[in-house]
Structures are given as C-alpha cells and as structure tokens.
Amino acid sequence: GAKDKMNIRAAFVHNVSDAMASVAVLVASGLIILYQWYWVDLLVTVLISVYVIHHGALLLAESGRILMQQAPADLAPELLQEQLAARPEVVRVESMHLWRLDEKQNVLTAVVYLEPGLDSASPLAQQRLRRWLSRRTQGAEITLECRFA
Prior knowledge:
56% helix, 4 helices
C-alpha cells in the first residue's frame, strides 16, 4: 500500500525512521561506551535527519502538485493536445485541461472540434476519442465537449 497511497507512504517513512533511530541510538551508545566516539551521536542524528527530510520533501512536492491541481508529472498535456489535434476526425482542440485529484485519479476536460461530415457518426467518434484519451491519461475521468467545425 505504501507505493499507491501517499498517507500510507508517510506513515511508513515515519515508522522506518523511528526504527532506524532506535537501532542507531543503540549502536551509537555502544560505540560511545566502548571507544568514547562521541562524534557518532552527531553522525547518527544527521543521517536520520537527512533520511526524514528527503522523504518529507518528496511527499510535500507530490501533495503540493495535487493541491495546486497540476498535471501529472508523467503526462505532458501539450503533447497530448498536439496528438489529439492530429487525429483524422479532429479539426482542432481548444481549452484542454489535465490535472490530478489524488494519487491515482486524473481528470481531463477539452473542447474538440470535429470534421463537419461526422454529424451522423458523432457518438461513435466521441467514443473512439474517449478510449484513445483514456489509454494515454492512465484512465482519467474525461469530459469532452464536441462541436463541429
């Protein structure tokens, strides 16, 4: 679950850092008692802090992208819009927006102008466009407004 859910991943990082801190304190205290290496305490503290700060920053960046409703990092909306506009039944694409609602759910909205001769085949063309977009957006929730040029 830690790979799929951000809150589980945060809890996992918290638990791992607690476990690492406990083991590191035992090892450091042993080294201090045996060899009077007092600097080991500082080293252990720095290493654990770096681990926690690194994973915290990753989680903060990901949650910030979701809160700001940015496009998923692994999808390029501009490229997707160009590919959609290049399809034979599409004349042009206007106001396409792609964003994330949470770790797994993407949303896409677009206004698509179709070839004028597709009036009778419009539902079929829209269905094909939705399937095509769904495959390229990792199953995003898609809202298309189709108009005729």
